[in-house]
Each structure stands twice: as structure tokens, then as C-alpha cells.
Design brief:
Elements (H helix, E strand, L loop, with lengths): L13 H8 L5 E4 L2 E4 L2 E2 H4 L5 H10 L5 H13 L8 H10 L5 H9 L9 H17 L4 H15 L17 H14 L6 H17 L7 H11 L4 H26 L29
Antiparallel strand pairs: 1-2, 2-3
Helix pairs in contact: 3-4, 4-9, 4-11, 4-12, 5-6, 5-12, 6-12, 7-8, 7-10, 7-11, 7-12, 8-10, 9-11, 10-11
Length: about 280
């Protein structure tokens, strides 16, 4: 039993015990009543945008209009990247297998893990390490240098949030940084994470001798960090965003038809690298 669970007693048995089983501060619901974080649903409908509703559900309070706008911008920027993205391809392939929209979407969402979909969470955690070092007195330059030194000494692969296997410069990232700077200038956010991301990019460029620019994951991580979301929620927000593209592709493929479409046209076969053709040994060995 965890420390948070209450041991059953006279006060938590029967119906009371059942009511405490899924205790939540998110929703209150009974016949004729739905309250989200204390707000009557009928009061929210038509007055609160979808990004604001996401904020309310996750954070417990309504955002300002500007905060909701910035969250919506980040969510809108990452909705799709085409069938070459594994999640989108999986949604389309699943649709040709005769499953429903929900199954096609679930199949796609289930592959949004550490490699495909998790870079935003990793980037925000990376930024957070640098911000924490600055809070302890390090300069921006020293904090970035120290964190990158540790990354290249202890970790492998790409610095999360930088570089793109398809785009020399991810067209979404510069625009998202421009928007972030605009919101910071208006006092909606502080702009700290944008500054950190730009400093990381500059230092990577210096070390590599070529520019490894910020990508969509790094840019949306900047916005989510500016808005105060913790790194794990960054992945969840990406899933919400990419679900829009997943739904669109699953629906388009459903309308186009097709049966059992695999990752390649049937006339294109994979490269076989196994044992050459051979005969089964005789019964006598």
C-alpha cells in the first residue's frame, strides 16, 4: 500500500470507500451536473477555447487569453509531418486494414515514444538543467557549456531539440521563436527558455563548425517551458497536437480506400540478408 492510499476503516467503507477509489480534483459529475475544475460546463461552452480548456484541465485554473493563444500556436505548429513520419504512416496502414478511426489513431499514437515524439520532453528537461544552473549563480554561457560537456561525455546521439533529418532548417522553428519573442516583449512570458535555446544552438554551432538549428521539438519545448508546463506534459501536449494529423490522414486513407497497404508498394521488396537458398537434409542425415 502506498503512502497516499488510505487504509479502509469505518469512515471509508461501503459507498464512501468506492467514492474515494478514484478521487479526483478534475471533474465533479452527477445527474444533471458537470463541473470541470469547479466551473459549470455550460458556463465554459462557447466562452473558453479548446487550448484554454486544455490548460484548465491540466493546470486547474483558466489561462489568460494570451497564454491560451500561445499554447494554441504551439499545438498548431506540430500537427503533421506527412506519411514519412512513422506515426502518420502507421495510421494510414491501419486504416487499410479495415479498422475504425479510433483503432487507426491508437495504433499511431502508441508509437509516439522516446525516439518519435519524445524529443520535446527531453529538450525541455535539457533547458531546465541549464535554467537550474543559472538559478544557482552560473552565467548562461557557463551553464550551457557545462551541460553540453556532460551531454557529449555521457550521452549519445543528437542534442534533443536540435537538427532535423529532413529539413536543413526546420521552417517551423524560426517562426515559433519569433512568436515567442513577441509574447515575451508584451510581458506574457519571460523569454528565458528562448534565450537558453538560442545559446545552445550557438554553442553547438561553434563546436561542430556548422549550424545544427533548432527544430520543432525544441521550439515547442521553449513555448511549453515559457508557459510553465513540466517536461512530461510536453510529450502529452505533442500527442494532442500530432493526433490532429493522425486523424486527418486516417480519415483521408479511409476515404481513398485500399486494402492491406504495407510500408512499400508490393513490387518493391525488402533486401534479404540471410542464408542463401538451401535444401533440407536427407532423412538419413
Amino acid at each position: 500500500m502506498s503512502g497516499k492510499e488510505k487504509k479502509p476503516n469505518e469512515e471509508t467503507t461501503g459507498r464512501a470507500r468506492g467514492e474515494e477509489w478514484w478521487q479526483t480534483s478534475i471533474i465533479e459529475m452527477m445527474p444533471g451536473v458537470i463541473r470541470l475544475r469547479g466551473y459549470e460546463i455550460q458556463d465554459l461552452i462557447g466562452r473558453v477555447s479548446f487550448p484554454a480548456m486544455i490548460w484548465l484541465m491540466l493546470r486547474g485554473e483558466l489561462p489568460t487569453d494570451e497564454q491560451a493563444d500561445l499554447l494554441g500556436i504551439a499545438l498548431g505548429a506540430a500537427v503533421d509531418h506527412g506519411p514519412q513520419a512513422p506515426s502518420i504512416a502507421i495510421a494510414r496502414m491501419a486504416a487499410t486494414c479495415g479498422v475504425g478511426i479510433n483503432s487507426a489513431m491508437a495504433s499511431a499514437i502508441n508509437v509516439l515514444g522516446d525516439v518519435h515524439g519524445g524529443a520535446g520532453e527531453q529538450a525541455l528537461a535539457f533547458y531546465g538543467d541549464i535554467a537550474a544552473a543559472m538559478d544557482e549563480g552560473a552565467t548562461l554561457t557557463d551553464a550551457v557549456t557545462t551541460r553540453l560537456n556532460r551531454f557529449f561525455a555521457e550521452e549519445s546521439g543528437y542534442v534533443p531539440g536540435f537538427g532535423h533529418r529532413f529539413h536543413p532548417v526546420d521552417p517551423r522553428a524560426p517562426r515559433l521563436l519569433e512568436v515567442t519573442r513577441d509574447f515575451a516583449a508584451r510581458g506574457v512570458i519571460g523569454g528565458r527558455f528562448a534565450t537558453i535555446a538560442e545559446a545552445i544552438e550557438a554553442e553547438i554551432t561553434r563546436r561542430k563548425g556548422k549550424r545544427i538549428p533548432l527544430n520543432i521539438d525544441g521550439a515547442t519545448a521553449v513555448i511549453y517551458g515559457e508557459l510553465g508546463f513540466p517536461p512530461p506534459l510536453t510529450r502529452g501536449l505533442f500527442v494532442l497536437s500530432r493526433s490532429v494529423g493522425i486523424l486527418a490522414h486516417a480519415w483521408e486513407q479511409t476515404e481513398q480506400g485500399g486494402r492491406n497497404k504495407g510500408p512499400l508498394p508490393r513490387e518493391w521488396l525488402w533486401a534479404y540478408a540471410g542464408t542463401p537458398k538451401r535444401k533440407l537434409p536427407d532423412d538419413g542425415g
